[in-house]
Amino acid sequence: MKILTIGDIVGKSGVEFLKNNLKEFKSVHKIDFVVANGENSAEGNGILPDCAKKIFESGVDVITNGNHTFRRREIFPFLNENHKILRPYNYPSKSTPGFGFCKVKVNNINVAVINLLGVAYLESINLPLDSLDEALRFCVDCPIKIVDFHAEATAEKRALGYYVDGKVSVVFGTHTHVQTSDEEILPLGTGYITDVGMTGPICSVLGVKKEISIKRMKNRMPVRFENATGPCKMECAVFEVDDKSGKTVAIERFRLK
What we know:
- Helices cover 25% and strands 27% of the residues.
- It is built from 6 helices and 13 strands.
- The strands form 2 sheets. Strands 1, 2, 3, 4, 11, 12 and 13 form a 7-stranded mixed β-sheet that branches.
- Strand 9 and strand 10 form a beta hairpin.
- Helix 1 (11-29) runs parallel beside helix 2.
- The longest helix has 19 residues, at 11-29.
- It is globular and about 55 Å long.
């Protein structure tokens, strides 16, 4: 099975670029299943129902999120209604809208997608390793398991990758919006990349207008972020997973402009 993982989709231009390019990419690379992070797809940040619908219509099968998941309250009902749009599993489950993992049948194979949020420099919520152990207990019927670890610290991401090596098929990192070059198959067969990157404006600071980010750095005063415009890119990685063993056999990283 070929699994495409797509980095944080930023703003209207990122959503539009995805819409215009994803279906052809899937066809050329014979993709079976697509997971994309959508937590910045609304203008400003967060995700709105309209953004989610456009991402699904573009050809994404499951949308993951992160620390901006709940920035827009309009998404709360959508999170509760659609199990294919996820929020991080390690938020307190009883009081948090939505689902932290889902199961999807792809080519008659059960595939689980688990969304986690890091705690280093981010939210003080349930520990990701404990939460992952818990989520995996619900996914024993899924030969293929995919984890989006939305985290700031590269060390935290690397540690989780090794912790779960051999227990899941794929771990891909999101949140930093900068694609890393460390894609690899870990010793026990888990495919891994620290951060898959960003889908959005190239001439930007993580999708934000560069002038605004520079102004904040110089003045140290609060500013209202605005998404940049102009030519875009889609950063992503394709993991080829053996259907029977659930282990990754090949990885390729892409930057589509």
